[in-house]
Amino acid sequence: MHVIHRYAPSMRLLHWVRAILIIGLIGLGWTMTFLPETDLERFTWMYPVHKEFGVLAFIVGIVAIAVRLRSVLPGHPSGLKVWETTLSRITQWAMLSLAVVVPLMGYCMSSSFSQSDGVPFFFFELPELLAKNDAAFAVFASLHKVLAYTLLGLIVLHVAAVIKHRFFDHGRDTDVLKQML
Questions:
Q1: For 4, which of 23, 41, 79, 129 is 20 to 30 Å away at the CA?
Q2: Residues contacting residue 84 through CB under 8 Å, at least 6 positions apart
Q3: 166 to 21, 79, 137: CA distances (angstroms)
């Protein structure tokens, strides 16, 4: 029996693309929401770029889930405890799910806002499929924010676990980073 020690190249590429997209989107989202309402940069380029790359993150997230479901995954390192592998699986699926749900809530937010300037996706304008409803917009805005912070918290947990396993679990086979490089 052949043992797989690393994720497939497609999964590794999707992982790092998703990481860059999500961290960039959270950073841009945070920046633009802390600027004053009168700051024109928010509306001239920040919101459109955030929306475009949010749609891209949604697409990459869907592709990543599809690829993961069809792939043979490497086993967890033998030195990990059962609770660590369980928490790892839960965290990975939660991050994958939120990588799709957070941009979807952003789309719903933009689509339902009565004063929306549309949902750009680079050279296209996506249709706004939801009825204009500012009460629904407020719900989607809250969900988008709370779930984005939840995703950020899971990312911090994920990175902390990678650092712990790489640098602090001396004498145990727990280095998970080598599977994703």
A1: 23
A2: 76, 161, 174
A3: 24, 12, 43
Ordered DSSP codes for 73-117 = PPPPPTTS-HHHHHHHHHHHHHHHHHHHHHHHHHHHHHHH-TT--
Q: What is the pLDDT of residue 155?
A: 97
Q: Which residue has the tokens 């928010």?
A: 42
163 in a structural domain: yes
- CA-CA distance, 14 to 91, in Å (whole number)? 17
Q: Which residues contact 72 (CB under 8 A, 6 or more apart)?
A: 4, 8
Please check whether residue 116 is in contact with residue 48, taking contact to mean a CB–CB distance below 8 angstroms: no
pTM for this entry: 0.91
Residue at 102: amino acid letter? V
Residue at 3 is within a domain: no
What contacts 139, CB < 8 A, 6 or more positions away? none
| Tens digit of each residue's pLDDT (9 = 90 or more) over 81-103 | 999 999 999 999 999 999 999 99
- Residue numbers of the domain that contains 104: 9-180
Q: Find the CATH number of the domain harbouring 72.
A: 1.20.950.20
Contact indicator for 132, 181 with CB cutoff of 8 Å: no
